Task: inverse folding
């Protein structure tokens, strides 16, 4: 069972063909503190940086264990950026906003290797 | 768990790998994780796959293969060469394959996480096919993909505990690390059974070896056992027999060469004997062994020939030149040739291969031609050959080893230290003299039977092998033409001697006759002399008589005149 949380206004009309449309899927295993934190952090980051250009799908692997193999889920929680391509995986509770932004390609990776400004 | 450990015998899950279940007295610990570690390319994945496939096909225990390195299709292709139909097993729900892809570049870590996803995947796969066996190959890849080693370690510990709780028999593979068995020290977590695979290169020849480092709660073989990976899968060879207690047979079998049989007291060899035929190049070692093969197959026994220098075809062809048709035995399936280059494997591997082939074919006669082709460090060589002889003896197999001697000397060198292991030692030697070379044969020893101490010359012709008594005389041992010449000379000399003595006899007769003749003559003249004497005597008497009568006459006349 997945919970559809769409914050996009009207992706087809407004963002037609726009690579900026983000389709995100968050894999969790039950209502663990880490999962709850991850979802909260994700929503916060998206609102701040991707307002109107994203939708989030939450997959609970305890309910749908068969979905784990398809997206190569290993760690929990895992955020998968399904669109735009390429596919990206971000693991952890997303508490490090800077890394989340880099991981989602919203902010370019710092050349020094350190992702904190 | 505790109750299980205290029971007399630990429950074990058979791997179905030849030999491994013997070495471990039953297989891997059931319901527990075992670690199989080794360096790259030593057969960890294959070992694990075999465990899984055998479980699914032989023991009705479905299994999950969780691969962290190879993709499912690569894995299926790799094991297809061993005859495993992984795809088929996946389709029938006997095996589930899950490839866990861990690519560091695709993963961004942003805070706390755990590996619950892995547990869920594994749990789901296990539940779907009701798996009893699990393989995690190679879980250490996670350390390369994820940076938080502390989390990984605690999660792995949890994973192994989870496997144990679920009662899954698991194999976890690990890459050999510096100074420890695995790079990440997995042996600390998996403490029940650790198997080490090794792939050593010595003198450019690779030998695979397996050792059970640890097996908690169970006895196990502690040696390094060579193992084999080929088209027939993995076989581990517990080749060291500790004792020499095997049954012996009093049955006598023919060597295939009648005149050679005659050199042994009972008229042949004991069944199960080990025979060494040594000799320099071209002395007929292979030909004698071909005769033995032919004799055995003609008796209806199975025969296996390991050849290292020729192909089976070539041996068949060559045997035809001495009137043997080995081909028909190959056709009837009684004879099998196993040809391999000596350098193809290491010694242990050769032994391992022979062991497996012998187990499968169950021959009653084995020929190894030539044993001297096997090369290796001296110590290892002798130990290996010892085990080989041991293995054959333990099975009551009559074994014929040929051994090439590089020198023609009558020394001990070049026998590979084998002679003391052998029951029978037949030595072939070339004797070169008078511009020709002839073959001679000695029986140096034959345990438990009287045997001829004579040197025989043996001849090979299209009619087969034949032994001829060699000439032994004051001039030494003569063979070939020299023997024939010598025999002719002796005959001539004998004739001469005979003639001489006859002549002498005639002389004696003649001389005796002449003496007798002389005697007769003398006797005749003696008789003449006697006659003359008598005559003279008579005259004397007559004269005396006459004189006396005249005297009487005169007297009378005188008296008358007075």
Result:
């Amino acid at each position: 069972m997945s919970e559809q949380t769409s914050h996009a206004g009207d992706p087809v009309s407004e963002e037609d063909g726009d690579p900026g449309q983000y389709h995100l899927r968050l894999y969790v295993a039950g209502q663990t503190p880490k999962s709850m934190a991850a979802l909260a952090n994700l929503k916060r980051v998206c609102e701040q940086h991707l307002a109107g250009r994203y939708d989030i799908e939450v997959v609970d692997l305890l309910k749908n264990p068969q979905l784990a193999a398809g997206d190569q889920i290993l760690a929990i929680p895992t955020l998968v950026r399904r669109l735009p391509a390429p596919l990206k995986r971000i693991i952890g509770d997303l508490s490090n906003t800077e890394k989340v932004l880099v991981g989602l390609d919203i902010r370019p990776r710092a050349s020094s290797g350190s992702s904190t400004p | 768990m505790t109750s299980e450990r205290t029971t007399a015998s630990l429950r074990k899950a058979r791997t179905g790998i030849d030999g491994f279940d013997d070495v471990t007295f039953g297989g891997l610990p059931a319901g527990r994780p075992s670690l199989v570690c080794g360096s790259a390319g030593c057969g960890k994945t294959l070992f694990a796959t075999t465990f899984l496939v055998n479980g699914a096909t032989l023991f009705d225990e479905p299994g999950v293969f969780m691969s962290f390195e190879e993709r499912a299709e690569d894995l299926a292709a790799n094991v297809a060469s061993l005859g495993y139909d992984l795809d088929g097993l996946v389709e029938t729900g006997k095996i589930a394959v899950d490839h866990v892809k861990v690519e560091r570049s695709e993963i961004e870590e942003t805070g706390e996480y755990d590996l619950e996803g892995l547990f869920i995947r594994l749990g789901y796969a296990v539940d779907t096919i009701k798996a009893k066996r699990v393989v995690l190959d190679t879980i250490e890849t996670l350390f390369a993909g994820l940076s938080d080693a502390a989390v990984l370690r605690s999660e792995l510990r949890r994973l192994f505990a989870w496997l144990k709780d679920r009662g899954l028999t698991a194999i976890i593979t690990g890459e050999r690390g510096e100074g420890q068995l695995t790079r990440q020290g997995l042996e600390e977590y998996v403490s029940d059974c650790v198997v080490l695979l090794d792939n050593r290169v010595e003198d450019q020849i690779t030998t695979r070896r397996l050792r059970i480092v640890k097996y908690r709660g169970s006895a196990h073989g502690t040696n390094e056992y060579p193992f084999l990976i080929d088209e027939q899968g993995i076989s581990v060879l517990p080749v060291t027999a500790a004792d020499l207690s095997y049954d012996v047979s009093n049955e006598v079998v023919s060597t295939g060469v009648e005149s050679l049989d005659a050199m042994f007291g009972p008229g042949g060899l004991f069944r199960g004997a080990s025979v060494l035929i040594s000799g320099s190049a071209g002395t007929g070692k292979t030909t004698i062994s071909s005769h033995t093969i032919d004799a055995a197959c003609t008796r209806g026994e199975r025969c296996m020939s390991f050849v290292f220098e020729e192909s089976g075809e070539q041996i068949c062809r060559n045997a035809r030149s001495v009137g043997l048709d080995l081909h028909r035995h190959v056709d009837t399936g009684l004879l099998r040739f196993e040809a391999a280059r000596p350098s193809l494997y290491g010694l242990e591997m050769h032994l391992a291969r022979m062991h497996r082939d012998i187990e499968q074919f169950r021959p009653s006669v084995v020929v190894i031609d030539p044993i001297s082709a096997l090369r290796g460090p001296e110590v290892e060589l002798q130990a290996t050959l010892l085990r080989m002889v041991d293995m054959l003896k333990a099975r009551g197999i009559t074994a014929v080893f040929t051994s090439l001697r590089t020198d023609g000397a009558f020394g001990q060198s070049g026998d590979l230290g084998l002679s003391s292991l052998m029951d029978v030692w037949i030595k072939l030697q070339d004797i070169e003299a008078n511009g020709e070379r002839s073959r001679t044969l000695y029986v140096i020893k034959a345990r438990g039977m009287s045997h001829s101490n004579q040197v025989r010359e043996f001849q090979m012709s299209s009619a087969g092998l034949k032994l001829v008594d060699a000439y032994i005389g004051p001039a030494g041992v003569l063979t070939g033409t020299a023997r024939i010449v010598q025999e002719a000379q002796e005959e001539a000399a004998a004739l001469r001697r005979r003639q001489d003595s006859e002549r002498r006899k005639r002389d004696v007769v003649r001389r005796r006759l002449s003496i007798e003749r002389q005697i007769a003559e003398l006797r005749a003249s003696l008789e003449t002399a006697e006659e003359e004497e008598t005559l003279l005597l008579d005259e004397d008497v007559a004269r005396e008589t006459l004189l006396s009568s005249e005297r009487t006459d005169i007297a009378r006349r005188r008296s008358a005149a007075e």
Q: What stands out?
A: Residues 303 and 335 of chain B are 5 Å apart (CA to CA). The two ends of chain B are 187 Å apart (CA to CA). The mean pLDDT of chain B is 83. Chain B touches chain A through 25 residues (CB under 8 Å).
